[in-house]
Amino acid sequence: MSPYPRRQVLGAAVAVTAAGALPLAAASDTLAAGPGGGKGAAGWVPVPDPVPVPLDSLYDNDGIDTATARGGGFDGSGYTFPGEELPAGRVEVDGVPFDFPSSTAGTKNNVVALGQRVDLPRGRYLSAVFLTTRLRETGAWLKVNGEAVYDTTYWSRMAQLGEDLRFTVRPNEAFYIHSLTRPGAKLTVEAPVPIRPGDKVTPLGHDRPLTWTVGKGALVIDVPETARKAGQHVWVFKVEWHG
Q: Residue 50 forms beta bridges with which residues?
C-alpha cells in the first residue's frame, strides 16, 4: 500500500490515536421510577460511569516525538505530535475519561484502524467512545506552521505564558509565538520577547508583516481580521530576526 492511500485510511478511520483506554457507557437493567414510585415509561436511569477498555496491546504505531528523541511517523510521512505539549495519564474530553499513552521515545502509542478486533468485558453497553485525530486537518496545519515546530527548541526563558501562549525558537533565525486561542485585534505578550527594531512579525499563513510595539515589558502585535482568518486551531506568529 502506498503512503497516500494509507493516510486516507488513517484520516477516515483512525481509532483511538491518542487514548490508552476506550470508555464504554454501560446500560442499566433498572428502570426509572414512574409517578407514585412504580416503574413507568420514564426510560432508563442515568447512564453509569464509563468502563475503560485498555488498548495498549493494540498499539501499532509511534506518533509522538520529543525535542530530544525523534523517529516516529504518525501519518506515514514523518510528522508526529510533540510529546511536551501532550497530557499524561488520565484526561477527560467532554466529560469522558481517557488514559493517554506514554511519550517515551520509541514506544508504540496509537492504533491505526485497519479492522482490528477490540475485546470488550462482558456486559450490555449503550455506546463506545474513541479519542481520534483528523489527519488531513493536522497535516494541513503542519504544512503551514510546521516551521514553528520542527527543528526548533523551547525558549529557555519560558516555554509558555499562561494557558494560551507557547514559545519556540529556531536558533539564529526566528522566534515563534503560538496562540492557542484566536487572537483579538491586538495580541499582547507580557514577556521579554527577543525582538529588536527592524525585525518582522508575520503570522504563518499570512503574507504580510504586522505592526508591533514594545512597552512596559510587553510585546503588542496589531492583528487585522485577515490575519485572524488565515489561522486555525493554533495561531503562530513568527518574529524574524535581522542583523
A: none
- Written as nine digits, the cell of 88 is 499524561
Are both 85 and 153 inside the same structural domain?
no
Half-sphere exposure of 173 (CA within 13 A, CB side): 11
Confidence band of 243 (pLDDT split at 50, 70, 90): low
3-state SS class at 85: helix
Q: How far apart are CA 149 and CA 67, in angstroms?
A: 10
Mark whether 119 and 31 lie in a shared domain: yes
The number of domains in the chain is 2
- Return the axis-axis angle of helices 135-145 and 3-13, rounded to nearest 10°: 120
Same domain, 113 and 186: no
| 118-166 pLDDT per residue, tens | 888 888 777 788 777 666 677 778 888 889 988 888 898 888 898 889 9
Residue with cell 503562530: 236
Q: Do the Cβ atoms of 125 and 53 come closer than 8 Å?
A: no
